[in-house]
Amino acid sequence: MSDFQLDPTQVRRHFGRAASTYEKHDALQREVGDALLERLGFYLETPLRVVDVGAGTGRGSALLKQKYPKAEVIAVDLALPMLRAAKQHSSWRKPFRRVCAEATRLPLADHSVDVLYSNLCFQWVDDLPALFGECMRVLKPGGFMAFSSFGPDTLMELRAAWAEADQQPHVGRFLDMHDVGDAMLNAGLRDPVLDVFRYTLTYSEPRKLLEELRGLGATNADRARARGLTGKGCYRRMLAAYEAMRTDGRIPASWEVVSAHAWGPPVGQPRRVPGGEIATFSIDTLRGSRRK
Fold it and tell me: Which residue intervals define the domain Methyltransferase type in the entry (predicted)?
C-alpha cells in the first residue's frame, strides 16, 4: 500500500474555498454520481436512514432523498461552507439533514445506517482501515454501501507534465483498487464488488484544467507537497510539457474511477486483524449460553 499521507486541514480548506464554484465544474462528478446511484438498485429493502458521506454541495443528497422519500437522509461533509451551499438542494418537501464531520469519525450510532453512499470522497482519506472500519461500525447487518473514488491513473498527464518541470509532488496521489478491496475485506464488509471506469476529458489549454481543479477544490493536499509559490520557469516548463501531449487540437486529462459496493455483515462475522481474525458479539447474545 502507498505510504503517502494527506493533510486533512488542507483538504478541508480547499473544499471550503471551492463551495461557491464547485457546481460550475462538476460535470464528471455528476456523471459518476448518477452511475453510482444505479448501484443502489442492488438494495431491495426500504431504508430508514441513508447517509451521503462527502456530500459536498448536496446534489447527491437531494437525489437520494428523491429516491428514498420516506428515509432520513443525512449529508455529511468535513467542509462547513460546502454544507451551507447544500442548503439550496434541501427543499421543505424533501429535506435532508446536514452534518459537518469526517468520514472516519461519523457522529452516528453503531449499526444505525441502512444505506451509505459516497461519491468521489474516499480518495481524500488515506487511512483506509479507519475509513472502512467506520463504515462497518455504522452499517446495519445487511445494510448496503456504495462508493466511488479516484484511482492512481487519475490526472496522469498532468503528473507527467509536472515531472518534466521538477521533482516535487504537484498532483495528488490516489490508492489502487486492490488496496481498497483489501481494506474492505479486512474491515469485514461482505461481498465487495469493485469496478474501474476510465474517463478522458479534454481542454483547450492546460490552464483550463487547472482552473477546473481549483474550482472543485481538488488540488494537491499531500503532506509532502512543495510549500510556497511555484516558480514561473517551472510553471512554464510544465505547460510546455503538457502542450506536447495535445491530441486533435485538445489537451487530454485522464480520470480513473473505482466504483464499489458491499454489504454490512451479520453480527459476529469475523474480520481480519493482524495475526488472525476476530468476531464480535453483544453480551445479550451470550446470555443463557453458560452451561449449568
Answer: 51-147
Name 198's bridge partners: 256
Cα Rg of the chain (Å, integer): 21
> Tens place of pLDDT for every residue, the chain, 292 residues?
445 678 888 889 999 999 999 999 999 999 999 999 999 999 999 999 999 999 999 999 999 999 999 999 999 999 999 999 999 999 888 899 999 999 999 999 999 999 999 999 999 998 999 999 999 999 999 999 999 999 999 999 999 999 888 877 778 778 889 999 999 999 999 999 999 999 999 999 999 999 999 999 988 767 655 555 566 888 899 999 999 999 999 999 999 999 999 999 987 665 554 444 555 555 555 455 444 4
**Which residue in this structure is represented by grid cell 454489504?**
263
Beta bridge partners of 201: 253
Q: With helix as H, strand as E and coil as C, how does the chain read?
A: CCCCCECHHHHHHHHHHCCCCHHHCCHHHHHHHHHHHHHHHHCCCCCCEEEEECCCCCHHHHHHHHHCCCCEEEEEECCHHHHHHHHHHCCCCCCCEEEECCCCCCCCCCCCEEEEEEECCHHHCCCHHHHHHHHHHHEEEEEEEEEEEECCCCCHHHHHHHHHHCCCCCCCCCCCHHHHHHHHHHHCCEEEEEEEEEEEEEECCHHHHHHHHHHHCCCCCECCCCCCCCCHHHHHHHHHHHHCCCECCEEEEEEEEEEEEEECCCCCCCEEECCEEECCCCHHHHCCCCCC
Measured distance CA(170)–CA(220) in Å, rounded: 6
| Domains annotated on the chain, with CATH | 8-152+174-198+257-286 (3.40.50.150)
Contact yes or no for 88/112 (Cβ under 8 A): no
And the C-alpha cell for 279? 468476531
